[in-house]
Write a structure and sequence with these properties.
- The complex is a heterodimer of chains A (about 325) and B (about 600).
- By secondary structure, chain A is α/β, with parallel strands linked by helices.
- Helices cover about 45% and strands about 20% of the residues of chain A.
- In chain A, helix 8 links the parallel strand 8 and strand 9.
- The longest helix of chain A has 30 residues.
- The longest helix of chain B has about 70 residues.
- Chain B contains 15 helices and 17 strands.
- Classes of the chains: A alpha/beta (about 325), B alpha+beta (about 600).
- Chains A and B meet through helix 1, helix 2, helix 9, helix 10 and helix 11 of A and helix 1, strand 3, helix 5, helix 6 and helix 8 of B.
């Protein structure tokens, strides 16, 4: 019998086997080997207050559904619990997820934990508050310099670009405090007729802030406007203005959208507030992490934007969603 | 230059039955499987898609129905209150303070009880054009910083002149310190007895109900529901903020413009399918959004199923066809192996028959054939053996010692009697006889030599039986060159002398004749001796161990030799009559050349 007869069968059979194996491989790869993408989000605070983080979380969940990834959200109960966050971050790193989305409680203290990540495949994305490191593939946050500038323009407009204004900032150490202050001051220089008093630092505490503003009013009765750097500062300033007899003459521009602030806006005490977009922050944190896992190039810094809310626009379709993010919250 | 074929098909032709069958079977099966798999895959894919679309449509219609039910309920509440006596009276101008308070308490009770029975209704408020406001709760205070008259639900109710106005979802801020997401139904109140307008009725639906309903509906992993009103504003969207930030887009314009219940967006690669259900009551559109690639996900599951199925069938097919082809080719191979053994000389080969099919039949015929060949071979060998023996016997017969002794005796006598001439004659005859009989060892000789031989023999015998024997040879000259076996005639003549003539008194004549008779040669040895009866004739050819008569043996030997060489059509026959004589007929074939 001739040799090449069985060898032609072998060629035929092996061709079939190769083709079918390829199909099996590709389909099985698609379904089984390409396993679920896992992301751990380490947030600043898991408590119900401030609501900011609840909204970030809902953004994270929306993205996890849309991009079909599994996201575990962890974080300390209070923003102050830095050690807890370090612990949680280390646990997250040990789980070897595809990515970690981090909102850092501290600019420096998380670095040792982060360094453990540098050799691994896990991508790191920071949101809201960054860290002093090059490891994160992207930093997604409100551009607070920009937000401060926005507030400066609005306040200038409200006082017709002329007169004295006071400044109250929560602190001079946090990234938000520094950047909002500097952003504001930088922008207000464009208005030569505006004179800035302060800033004073009220630790974000309404009572302390109210006291400081009152002192400022006593010293400068001709103050026409106040810039408050966060919600506590704004509420404190609002209280102080309410207690003066000229609440319609002092223009207050605040930050964020606490329910007490919203009432003060309705009342007309706070003329404008700068709000961030925490939902977008959470959503983009996951989206960028997913893009990075897929190997796409991501922007190193992403501004989620901020918006000026006034009494006039606070109940538009769009702004209602920003100010009253949870339909199931009854204030 | 001759173009070389890219794929030489001839190389792939299968010359063995096994590979041929295996290939054909595999090819057929694979072809069939592919066709079946392809069509059933398409069918199932279609079915799955239709099913899921149908399911989504039903789901969305259900959502629509539920929302309509809530809106109907608000409408019913508003209709009920529209012509309520207390309300009518309370807002009339000519009523005293005492009655007014009574009506107010009744109204608050009514509103409160309605609210309590309906979980979906979050607040009911009446705004009188006279500036009075009644809410469903006595302790509610209105928000002093909000001008309700500027709210869109208030204005729309005024415009619609008694018809119900339905708002989109919004935050209701009328009540102090309460900011709730609602859908508002507002309606202008009129007097029953006149066209006088008395105020606005506001019924707020808790938006949580719609929100939860929509969020709890799963359209695949990534799909979702959203709702827009007639104007294209979002009533509900799970990711509304992303849309405002341009991080996400919905095809609102297309949804409003299209009449279709379903359409697919063109945003490669993340195409979405919009299933639209429009409420006839509110004009809202409920849109179920699913991702095309989620259906593809289903597709992949089906694909893998079919691929595995195909592989399974393939393996089975190949094994099966190898099995089948082996079953067919194995007995053929065995048969061919057996044939080879026969070819190599092993005639005892027998093919085992395992099947009743064509191959079995072939094997059986082969076995029969081999048996026949075997038998013929043995026969042939036996015949050869026989020939040798009979030739030996013929030679023995020729050099019969008795004859030689007697002849020599006769010569001696004749020499003593000084009959020189006769001695010479007899001796030369004897010498001729032997010379002829040696004949270089050839078995086949011309008739003339045989005739000469018998002539010499008869000369000798005649000289011995002087008064008793005479002979006559009359062989046709035409047959003299034909060939015959040697030493055919001598035994017959001897037989005639010893049995026919010796016992007869007086002169006897032996005649030898030869001629062509039809297609045979007929030699006759005729004597006029005592003759034989039928019984004796029979006995001549019978092999009897008791009989030691040499002549009998000689005749039989001649007969056997003829038959061995030329077949059963030839041989010796006897005709005889008692007292008259015997004729021996020798039938032989005509042989012109020496070919045996």
């Amino acid at each position: 019998m001739k040799r090449w007869i069985p060898s032609s069968i072998i060629i035929f059979v092996s061709l079939i086997i190769i083709v079918s194996t390829y199909f099996i491989y590709s389909t099985i790869y698609q379904i089984f080997i390409k396993k679920e993408v896992r992301i751990v989000a380490v947030l600043k605070s898991m408590g119900p207050i401030p609501k900011f983080w609840e909204i970030v979380k809902s953004g994270i969940y929306a993205a996890s559904k849309e991009f079909d990834v599994k996201v575990d959200v962890v974080g300390p109960y209070r923003e102050e619990d830095i050690d807890v966050q370090i612990q949680l971050l280390e646990e997250a790193i040990n789980k070897k997820p595809d990515a970690i989305v981090l909102a850092a409680c501290d600019y420096y203290k998380l670095i040792p934990a982060i360094k453990k990540l540098s050799n691994k495949k896990t991508k790191l994305v920071t949101i809201d508050s960054g860290i002093d490191s090059d490891i994160p593939v992207s930093f997604i946050a409100t551009d607070n310099m920009e937000a401060g500038a926005l507030a400066a323009d609005k306040l200038a407009e409200l006082i017709n670009k002329n007169g004295k204004i006071g400044m109250i900032i929560h602190d001079k150490t946090s990234q938000t405090g520094i950047e909002r202050r500097d952003g504001f001051l930088k922008q207000i220089k464009n208005y030569p007729n505006i004179h800035v008093i302060g800033p004073v630092y009220g630790a974000g505490d309404p009572e302390k802030s109210a006291r400081l503003i009152k002192e400022m009013f006593d010293a400068n009765p001709d103050i026409k406007g106040i810039f408050a750097g966060n919600e506590g500062s704004a509420i404190g300033a609002g209280i102080a203005i309410k207690n003066t007899q000229k609440k319609d003459q002092i223009m207050l521009v605040g930050f964020d959208s606490d329910i007490d602030e919203i009432k003060l806006i309705e009342e007309g005490i706070i003329k404008a507030t700068i709000v961030q977009k925490p939902f977008n922050m959470g959503y983009l944190g996951i989206k960028i992490a997913v893009d990075s896992i897929k190997g796409q190039n991501v922007e190193k810094k992403i501004d989620t934007g901020s918006k000026i809310i006034t009494k006039e626009n606070m109940y538009t379709q769009e702004n209602q969603k920003l100010l009253f993010p949870f339909v199931d919250y009854n204030y | 230059m001759k173009k070389e074929k890219f794929f030489d098909f001839k190389k792939f032709q299968f010359t063995s039955i096994q590979s041929n069958i295996a290939f054909t079977f595999s090819f057929l099966f694979i072809f069939t499987i592919l066709i079946i798999a392809f069509f059933s895959y398409r069918l199932i894919e279609d079915l799955v898609r239709k099913n899921s679309q149908e399911y989504i449509n039903k789901l969305i219609d259900q959502v629509n129905n539920n929302i309509d039910a809530y809106i109907s309920n608000m409408e019913n509440v508003s209709s009920m209150l529209l012509y309520n006596n207390d309300i009518q009276n309370y807002f009339s101008n000519n009523i005293d303070k005492e009655n007014k308070d009574k009506h107010k308490i009744k109204i608050i009770d009514l509103l409160n009880s309605i609210k309590k029975t309906r979980e979906d209704i979050i607040s009911i408020i009446l705004f009188g054009y006279n500036g009075e406001i009644i809410t469903d709760n006595m302790y509610n205070q209105t928000n002093p910083f909000i001008d309700y008259k500027e709210q869109s639900w208030y204005k729309n109710a005024q415009i619609l002149d008694g018809e119900a106005s339905l708002s989109s979802s919004h935050v209701q801020n009328i009540i102090k310190d309460k900011y709730r997401w609602v859908v508002s139904l507002s309606r202008e109140l009129k007097r029953i007895d006149s066209t006088e307008k008395i105020g606005i009725l506001l019924v707020d639906l808790n938006f949580n109900i719609i929100n939860n309903m929509c969020k709890n509906i799963n359209l695949g992993k990534r799909g979702y529901i959203f709702i827009i009103n007639k104007e294209g504003d979002f009533v509900f969207h799970p990711q509304q903020q992303l849309i405002y930030s341009n991080l996400k887009k919905e095809m609102i314009a297309e949804v409003i413009l299209t009449d279709k219940k379903i359409f697919t967006t063109n945003e490669n690669p993340d195409n979405r399918i919009y299933n639209i259900s429009t409420s006839s009551k509110s004009g809202w559109k409920i849109i179920g959004v699913t991702y095309v690639d989620e259906l593809v996900g289903n597709k992949k599951a089906i694909q893998i199923y079919f691929t595995l199925l195909g592989i399974g069938c393939l393996v089975t097919t190949i094994l099966f066809s190898i099995f089948i082809s082996r079953r067919i080719s194995k007995p053929i191979k065995y048969l061919s192996y057996s044939m080879k053994r026969v070819e190599n000389g092993n005639f005892d080969t027998e093919v085992k028959i395992n099947s009743a099919d064509e191959i079995g039949e072939l094997s059986r015929d082969f076995n029969i054939m081999i048996k026949k060949i075997n038998r013929l071979m043995r026969q042939n060998m036996q015949d050869q053996e026989q020939k040798r023996k009979s030739e030996l016997k013929a030679l023995q017969a020729q050099i019969n010692p008795h004859f030689l002794y007697n002849t020599l005796d006769s010569i001696i006598w004749m020499a003593e009697a000084k009959k020189h001439e006769e001695v010479v004659e007899m001796t030369s005859a004897l010498a001729n006889l032997f010379r002829l009989s040696i004949s270089k060892g050839e078995q086949i000789i011309p008739i003339k030599k045989e005739v000469e031989h018998i002539k010499n023999y008869l000369i000798i015998q005649k000289m011995r039986y002087k008064d008793k024997l005479d002979f006559k040879i009359d062989v046709n000259e035409k047959i003299m060159d034909y060939k015959i076996l040697k030493i055919l005639l001598q035994p017959l003549v001897e037989n005639s002398i010893y049995h026919g003539i010796k016992n007869k008194t007086g002169m006897s004549l032996i005649q030898i004749t030869g001629e062509k008779f039809e297609d045979k040669i007929l030699l006759k040895v005729i004597d006029d001796g005592v003759g034989m009866d039928k019984h004796q004739i029979k006995n001549i050819f019978k092999k009897s161990k008791t009989s030691i008569e040499k002549s009998g043996v000689g005749v039989r030997n001649v007969n056997e030799r003829i038959k061995l060489y030329f077949g059963n059509n030839y041989g010796i026959t006897y005709e005889s009559k008692i007292g008259i004589g015997t004729t021996a007929n020798i039938w032989l074939p005509i042989i012109e050349q020496e070919q045996v």
